[in-house]
Design a protein that fits this description.
CATH architecture of the largest domain: 3-Layer(aba) Sandwich
Strand content: 15-25%
Low-confidence stretches: 1-12
Largest sheet: 6 strands, parallel
Bound molecules: iron/sulfur cluster
Radius of gyration: 22 Å
Number of domains: 3
């Protein structure tokens, strides 16, 4: 078989010009500290020191499920009322905490100082603190800073802020070095699958940001072309472009169609022939299609409502609508980056209501009125909605579970099928 690869093109029915409901009311979204939970697993010699309050400590400890005897690679330096006496005190305290930590944990090679909401922390200049501490601990430890504050970031934007903070630390690649950079934290197993596919396609060298170890921070330059693996990386993309890199526009690698189009964007840039692309991707595509067929029966025709949370909502709605026949009603996103999502919006059904930001009470009213079969939302809304008879899916699971690429397409569909199956059984 040598069929041409059906690459998604801008569909007549796309959503790219659809009106967007913009809301600026109360929102129910985790703050950017949450990203530490998956980032500390990904960069294996990094440590995340939250400079924050007891609330911040509770958030990451409960979200990450820390065991009491474990040596986690994150902690909170609690800046409380004591430090209001003066910024010098707070800075000295921070230096002492970092000194103690690095003396006790010599395996740490990259330390992130992570800012948070409390006013005492906002007054601290963490980028200056990072520069000061870097001088003291360089070259054995690199110290960077970013904000995970709930005032500035939602849920997945913590990853964006973290990766953006790494860009200035990337070495300069020569202009003639044509390299592919995949941007966005992916589970190692998914990264290995993509690396293998790029290798078989003859695309490379390929690097990933974030790296698994701090010593492997990739380089960047005018020859770097990058693919976003996640839709919430606006600041990182801007920083990379500031270093001369060029984005390869593509839908995101969710499902068979999204993964094919994503790989195809790199294949085009590297001049890979259609025949080679077809030969390399045929088997995994067929595997993905088979895995999805099983779930399509359960999901087709089911109506789904997305509350804004992870910024994955639009790519997921596209995947569920096009590959599983689901009917997205409202697709909410905390922020809508039109440029990065252009290929996704073009593929969404035209009658989808897009919303950006949140006015949670009004959105709850719309959701209850629409009576969808399943609601994707944050943890804070899931229980109240379940209590009203709704079936929910926690959006945080979509960030923690390997869902990118061909071999995860079936697992991704299953995440939506499982709560519906459970609900059907309860009703019977
Ligand atoms: S950063 Fe702000 S929103 Fe997040 S846990 Fe700390 S105080 Fe709460």
């Amino acid at each position: 078989m040598n069929a041409r690869v059906p690459i998604p093109v801008v569909a007549d029915t796309g959503c790219e010009n659809a009106p967007v409901l913009r809301e600026r009311g109360q929102r129910e979204v985790f703050c950017g500290l949450t990203g530490i939970i998956w980032l500390h697993r990904k960069i294996q010699d990094a440590f995340f020191l939250v400079v924050g309050s007891r609330t911040c400590a509770h958030l990451i400890q409960s979200a990450a499920g820390v065991m009491i005897f474990a040596e986690p690679r994150f902690a909170t330096a609690i800046i409380d009322d004591r430090d209001l006496a003066g910024l010098a005190d707070a800075n000295e305290e921070l230096d002492r905490v970092v000194g103690r930590l690095l003396a006790r944990r010599p395996e740490i090679k990259l330390l992130f100082l992570v800012g948070s909401c409390p006013s005492e922390v906002i007054k601290l200049d963490l980028s200056r603190a990072a520069a000061r501490l870097s001088q003291r601990f360089s070259p054995s430890v690199r110290i960077l800073s970013y904000s995970g504050s709930g005032i500035e970031t939602t849920f997945t934007q913590g990853e964006d802020a973290c990766l953006a903070s790494m860009v200035p630390a990337m070495a300069e690649a020569p202009a003639e070095a044509a390299e592919l950079l995949v941007v966005g934290a992916l589970p190692d197993v998914v990264e290995d699958q993509f690396r293998r596919l790029f290798g078989e396609l003859g695309i490379g060298p390929v690097d990933f940001l974030p790296p698994r170890r701090s010593g492997a921070v990739p380089r960047v330059g005018p020859g770097t072309r990058y693919l976003l693996a996640q839709p919430f990386l606006a600041d990182t993309a801007r920083a990379l472009e500031g270093r001369g890199a060029t984005r390869l526009a593509a839908p995101f690698p969710f499902g068979e169609e999204g993964t094919t189009a994503w790989l195809q964007a790199a294949a085009r840039a590297w001049g890979v022939s259609d025949e080679r692309f077809e030969a390399v991707t045929r088997a995994p595509r067929e595997r993905a299609r088979r895995a999805l067929a099983h779930h399509r029966e359960r999901l087709s025709g089911r109506r789904i409502f997305f509350f804004p949370d992870s910024q994955l909502e639009i790519p997921l709605a596209r995947f569920l609508a096009r590959e599983l026949g689901m009917l997205p009603l409202e697709v909410g996103t905390p922020y809508l980056h039109r440029q990065h999502l252009a290929d996704e919006l073009a593929l969404l059904p035209a009658d989808v209501q897009l919303s950006e930001g949140q006015d949670v009470e009004r959105q709850l009213d719309r959701c209850l009125q629409a009576q969808p079969d399943i609601v994707v939302c944050g943890l804070g809304l899931a229980n109240p909605l379940e209590a009203r008879g709704m079936t929910t899916k926690w959006s945080i699971e979509l960030v923690f579970t390997p869902v990118h690429g061909y071999d995860q397409a079936g697992d991704l569909a299953e995440l939506f099928a499982r709560p519906l199956v459970r609900r059907d059984r309860l009703v019977i």
